[in-house]
């Protein structure tokens, strides 16, 4: 195993208010491996593109499908593999459970929430199911979604015959107005369940407004934030939303296999999930099957052993996001997105785009054959994606104005 590196004090893991309850380490001299500082302030590029190997030979503008993998994440993953080889199962108690709590603390902070309100789950689909099975219906059966939401969110309710599902139509293919939610919600409503950022338009919804509409009707506000976390600033307790799902796959640069669930403080202890696991037990290492006592915090929603490789890659990506800071990332992404929009319009292309005050880093360009366009760009080492009728481009902080120009040239050449 490689010798430990040293990490700067600015990268020490955030303290978690909900530390794990597990047996003491097998050895009292628990090893703490620290990494070298990975962002070099002396370099001319403040966004440290050298951290992301894919940028060496690709123009990568597809972060809303999959964030680029960093050397930082790769180093964490190598640490995980080394410990698996050298320690086997004892790595759980001496290291891996601690890594889970390191990640939880950082993830909670980027959501503006205490660690006690954050659960780690395998996917957004699992998180949605956990929430749906935990809330008391109190005679309510109406759920409000929209046609712009990612299908996973809508499917959660589509298969439940007891649910009256209302799918709000978009007036322009880009947004849903708050008034539409207000008009659809009534005393039968159980959930207002919708997206923070629409995956196929980039429109940022008003979380405070959605939460207020739900709360005034006595309903829950459930937000799919997978396209939000990492590219917008978050203070979830201040918004009033009850539940918010996100994860490391996209803008948080951690890869697939993990999701995050924020639970509003008043529901953390009062709701008792029916989909449970041994990780959700207050004393999981007692292995007592005579009773089930849920954790006093959001861990009561967790669904068993997390994907440890992703925990490690997610921790690496999260540390980069933390050191750069979400405000700086939002500012940089806005600069790149504005430049992209400007250049696309100059070349006569047509956009399906949100107004400036609701715009994220997802840019949708209308195209008669978007699949063919994406394949043609890939042949030139320009990586974007497509959705029905559109080429989808999503710059992130590690992109440059030159990346934008290469994309535009590829679309017009």
Provide a descriptive summary of the structure in words.
The protein is α/β, with parallel strands linked by helices. The protein has helices spanning 71-87, 90-110, 124-134, 151-158, 178-184, 207-216, 236-239, 265-268, 308-324, 326-346, 370-379, 401-412, and strands at 59-60, 118-121, 142-146, 164-168, 189-195, 220-224, 243-246, 259-263, 351-352, 363-366, 382-383, 385-387, 390-393. The protein has 2 domains: 106-321, 3-Layer(aba) Sandwich (Aspartate Aminotransferase, domain 2); 326-412, Aspartate Aminotransferase, domain 1 (Alpha-Beta Complex), CATH 3.90.1150. It is built from 12 helices and 13 strands. The strands form 3 sheets. Strands 2-8-7-6-5-3-4 form a 7-stranded mixed sheet, sandwiched between helices. A 4-stranded antiparallel sheet has the order 9-10-13-12. Strands 1-11 form a two-stranded parallel sheet. The radius of gyration is 22 Å and the shape is globular.
SSE blueprint and pairings:
Layout: E1 59-60, H1 71-87, H2 90-110, E2 118-121, H3 124-134, E3 142-146, H4 151-158, E4 164-168, H5 178-184, E5 189-195, H6 207-216, E6 220-224, H7 236-239, E7 243-246, E8 259-263, H8 265-268, H9 308-324, H10 326-346, E9 351-352, E10 363-366, H11 370-379, E11 382-383, E12 385-387, E13 390-393, H12 401-412
Parallel strand pairs: 1-11, 3-4, 3-5, 5-6, 6-7
Antiparallel strand pairs: 2-8, 7-8, 9-10, 10-13, 12-13
Helix pairs in contact: 1-9, 2-9, 10-12
């Amino acid at each position: 195993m490689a010798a430990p590196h040293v990490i700067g004090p600015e990268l020490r893991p955030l303290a978690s208010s909900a530390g794990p309850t597990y047996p003491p380490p097998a050895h009292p001299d628990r090893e703490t491996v620290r990494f070298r500082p990975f962002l070099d302030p002396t370099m001319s590029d403040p966004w440290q593109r050298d951290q992301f190997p894919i940028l060496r030979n690709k123009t990568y503008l597809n972060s809303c499908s999959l964030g680029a993998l960093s050397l930082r994440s790769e180093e964490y993953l190598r640490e995980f593999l080394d410990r698996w080889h050298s320690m086997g199962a004892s790595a759980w108690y001496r290291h891996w459970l601690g890594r889970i709590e390191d990640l939880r603390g950082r993830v909670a902070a980027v959501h503006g929430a205490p660690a006690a309100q954050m659960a780690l789950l395998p996917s957004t689909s699992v998180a949605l199911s956990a929430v749906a099975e935990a809330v008391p219906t109190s005679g309510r059966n109406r759920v409000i979604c929209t046609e712009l939401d990612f299908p996973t969110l809508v499917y959660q309710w589509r298969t439940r015959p007891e649910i009256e599902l209302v799918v709000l139509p978009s007036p322009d293919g880009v947004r849903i107005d708050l008034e539409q939610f207000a008009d659809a919600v009534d005393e039968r409503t159980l959930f207002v369940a919708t997206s923070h950022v629409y995956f196929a338009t980039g429109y940022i919804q008003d979380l405070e407004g959605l939460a207020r509409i739900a709360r005034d009707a006595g309903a829950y506000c459930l937000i799919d934030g997978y396209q939000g976390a990492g590219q917008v600033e978050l203070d979830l307790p201040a918004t009033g939303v009850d539940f918010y799902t996100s994860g490391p796959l996209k803008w948080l640069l951690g890869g697939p296999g993990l999701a995050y669930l924020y639970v509003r403080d008043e529901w953390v202890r009062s709701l008792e999930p029916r989909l449970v696991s041994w990780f959700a037990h207050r004393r999981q290492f007692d292995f007592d099957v005579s009773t089930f006592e849920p954790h006093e915090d959001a861990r009561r929603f967790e669904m068993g052993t997390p994907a440890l490789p992703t925990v490690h890659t997610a921790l690496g990506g999260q540390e980069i996001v933390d050191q750069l800071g979400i405000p700086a990332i939002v500012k940089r992404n806005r600069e790149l997105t504005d430049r992209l929009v400007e250049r696309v319009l100059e070349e006569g292309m047509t956009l399906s785009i949100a107004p400036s005050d609701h715009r994220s880093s997802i840019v949708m360009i209308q195209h008669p054959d978007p699949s063919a366009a994406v394949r043609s760009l890939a042949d030139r080492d320009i990586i974007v994606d497509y959705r029905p009728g559109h080429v989808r481009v999503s710059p992130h902080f590690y992109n440059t104005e030159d990346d934008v120009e290469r994309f535009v040239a590829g679309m017009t050449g």
